[in-house]
Amino acid sequence: MEFTAILFYVFAILTIGSASIMVFSKNIVHSAFALMFTLIGVAAIYVLLYADFLAATQLLVYVGGILILILFGVMLTSQESAKLNFKTVTVNVVPASILSVTALVLLTYVFTTTQWASRNLETPQETVEILGTMLMSDYLLPFIIAGVLLLIAIIGSILMATRLNSKPTESN
Amino acid sequence: MFTTIPIIILLLPLLGFVLMIFFGKKLPRQGDWLSSGLISISLLLSIYLLINKVSSHSEEMISHSFTWVLIGSGSIEIGIAIDNLAAVMLVVVTLVSTLVHFFSMGYMKDDVRYSRYYAYLGLFSFSMLGIVITNNLLLMYAAWELVGISSYLLIGHWYEKKSASNAANKAFIVNRIGDFGMFIGIMILFFSYSTFTFEAIFSSINSGQLPFGSEQWLTAAGILIFCGAVGKSAQFPLHVWLPDAMEGPTPVSALIHAATMVAAGVYLVARVFPMLTSDALLVIAYIGAITSLIAATIAITQFDIKKVLAYSTISQLGYMIMALGVGAFTAGFMHLVTHAAFKAGLFLGAGSVIYAMHESLHKAKDHHTDAQDVRNMGGLKSKMPITYITFLVFTLAISGIPFTSGFLSKDEILAGTLAFSTMNGHWILPVIGFAVAAMTALYMFRLLILTFHGKPADESIISGIKESPKVMTVPLMVLAALSLFVFYSFNPLGAASGWFYAAIEQPMSVVPELIQPASAHVFHEAVENIHGMAMIISILMAGAGVLLAFAMYQWKKVNADKLAEHAGVLYKGAFNKWYFDEFYSKAFVGGTIILTKILRWFDENIIDGIVNGSAHITKIISSISGWIDNNVVDGLVNATANTADRAGGLLSKIQTGKVQVYLVYVVFSFLVLFILFL
Amino acid sequence: MEPSFLQWLADPGLSHFLILSAILFSLGIMAVLSKRNVIMVLMGVELILNSANINFIAFSRFTDLSLDGHMIGLFVIIVAAAEAAVALAIVLNAYKRFKTINLDDISMLKG
Hints:
By secondary structure, chain A is mainly α. Chain A has helices at about 5-25, 30-50, 50-75, 95-115, 130-135, 140-165, and strands at about 80, 85. Among the domains of chain A are: about 1-80, Four Helix Bundle (Hemerythrin (Met), subunit A) (Up-down Bundle), CATH 1.20.120; about 125-165. Helix content of chain A is about 75%, strand content about 0%. Chain A has a two-stranded antiparallel sheet with strand order 1-2. The radius of gyration of chain A is 21 Å and the shape is globular. The model of chain A has no long low-confidence stretch (mean pLDDT about 85). Chain B has 2 domains: about 135-575, no CATH class; about 585-675. Chain B has helices spanning about 5-25, 30-55, 85-105, 115-135, 135-155, 160-195, 200-205, 215-230, 240-245, 250-260, 260-270, 280-300, 305-325, 330-365, 385-400, 405-425, 430-450, 460, 470-480, 500-505, 520-555, 560-565, 570-575, 580-650, 660-675, and strands at about 60-70, 75-80. Chain B has a two-stranded antiparallel ribbon. In chain B, helix 16 packs across helix 21 (about 520-555). Chain C is mostly helical. Chain C is about 75% helix and about 0% strand. In chain C, about 55% of the residues are buried. Chain C has helices at about 5-10, 15-35, 40-60, 65-100. The longest helix of chain C has about 30 residues, at about 65-100. Chain C has a single domain (about 1-100), classed as Helix Hairpins (Orthogonal Bundle), CATH 1.10.287. Classes of the chains: A mainly alpha (about 170), B mainly alpha (about 675), C mainly alpha (about 110). The interface between B and C is medium-sized, with 13 and 14 residues.
């Protein structure tokens, strides 16, 4: 067994284990922290796949940004009649389990039986410079559109949040 | 170079029209200088073109054409063609038009629609020039109709007057009758030769191709096209519109109804002359002769100064048509040119007199006296010397007194008719010709004497009369000069040696040998033999007419009223214009009314019966189908709706409103699809 | 155990990563379908997105997709960030309106 194989299994187990905790935990705060470990594990998997830039981005954006956002969401919405309630309730457990297991079986079957067109593994190299060049040449238009998308998302979230504060209670 | 000049000549008046109709009111002096300037440039270019064309002594045409429309395998070519005929005509049109533009500055001063008047003059000039320079029947027809519409607009210039708008309608409608015939003629030619251009049609005929393979059809096509000329040139039986058209402003009468538009018919006949068969030409000659006789008799009896001139115009147009009919091609066309000058002059002179009368009446606050009735005039000689002298020159010219242009052309026409009768015995044509010559002299001098000589009918009005302004008298002087013989031939007694005869040659006939008119050569020889005699008779007739006029109206040796009484029916008939209007009104208008009554009866009783019957049947059928609708179709529809309602009620149970349940459906469906496509 | 299976297990290749992503995917599906809390559903969605990203990058490592796979992964992360921001704003709005973030109680679409 090679060193990379060991590393792969370590991080795979970390990822899957924390993801399972996230899904099956009854406490939403626990779930959020388990998600953090899952994301870190995925970042490590990226490193094993020689995607150094993406691994860094994963850490920065997911762990540093999205996860914090989710935690804020948890904190802001978990009030129920003046006290905190972090319990999560499950629904549809039987159909959901059946469907997810079916999906897992089907996907695994497809992934293992398909003959993927493989190629000779070349010597890995740093991807940052190449990705930068590509972003400024072939992917310039998607890059700009992505920027615009983010801008719109920012404006939209701010707008919704502001409305939220200016019109606090709308009777329903 | 020479292909662009005619196009510039053509388009300048159109430019004037467009500018005047949109911006005329805003320009200083309402833009009369603009229109007049543009038409003057056209005139100068036309003169330049004519001099170049004639001095080059070549019969070569300036022509240019291009394909306009492609129809199937054929195509329609349009373009321009300028031969000597067209070049002369260009100068005539632009010259008279220019003079009328300047004359109108005085005559139409203070008119309410001054700028629009000039715009319409521009439109008219453009369309008339279009007729002249085109090389095909299609464009000529289009320009022909444009001339009709601009004539309509100008006759109806004072449309507040009921009589003016009626006259405009009449002119347009009567013209349409002739144009209809012309259109059929053009279509016969197009159907046979798939082309509109003159040259192509002529060469096809020359090569022995006949419409529908028969000579009668060729004759018919010629006569049908001549119908257009009958309308525009006010020939019998469509001459009734021209006297009424005098409701328009007098300069317009001079331009359109004396010099150019009415001459368009003559020009048309001259254009298609090569394809006219001898039969068609005979019809044309007789139509012309009848017209000239009828109009001349009417002219003697009229008292309205413009009406007299109008009938005189019809008579002279009849002359030209007759000349073309008998084969005196050059003489007929020359008469067109000389007549354009002196008849335009006569109208402008009449305009000058009417203008002066109006001013005087206006000053005297007299609104009842007719400013155009010669019985209210008299003794104007001393008051309006320039108008009088020029009017005298024009009168001499139209009467055919030697040393005038009118003598040259009229003499040639009369010689032509005489030669024609010696060749094939149609002696009635020269008889009518000479009689009309005498009558022309009689009525023209009658008009002159009644207007300018003698004692004033009403001293108070006549004393207030002043000579018209320079802008009106100068055009008169120019036209008077052009009514002298020198401009057409240096020999005052014979036109045949002048440049005009050299420039305008009779075109070769292209119709088959058997139905060909006498060739130019044969005809000329006949004319040569008879010319001296014709000249003497012509001078004698004119002299007789003049003498009779003086005897009746100046010296009062012969009592005109008594003579009229003796003539009895003849006088009454002529005075009432031979009842043409009444006849048309009874026969066509009345006939149409009777026809409509019959049609109405037919409508109300038979067609309405059928319609009502079918409506009744429809009603029965519809009530049956209504029952079926209500019971069978509606039942089916309602059953469908109920089924859909129940199914919807069942399906709506699935819609729990819970997002995750929907998601379960989605994932489930996705997995099913996944398995299916695996 | 067959030796070939052990051998396969010892040398992590493309299919190992793919199976990892499949497990993450089904866990995400489980979270999305079964959790009543909106934020848990969002976390499930993030899980699914991550599993997809692992696929892209694995393919870009082992097949001809090359760096284009990285590119797509990058854009997925960008879109996920935007999605998370907007989704949380929506959640906050819904919370203000319905006084709850339980998806079962937000059932205005009921037919």
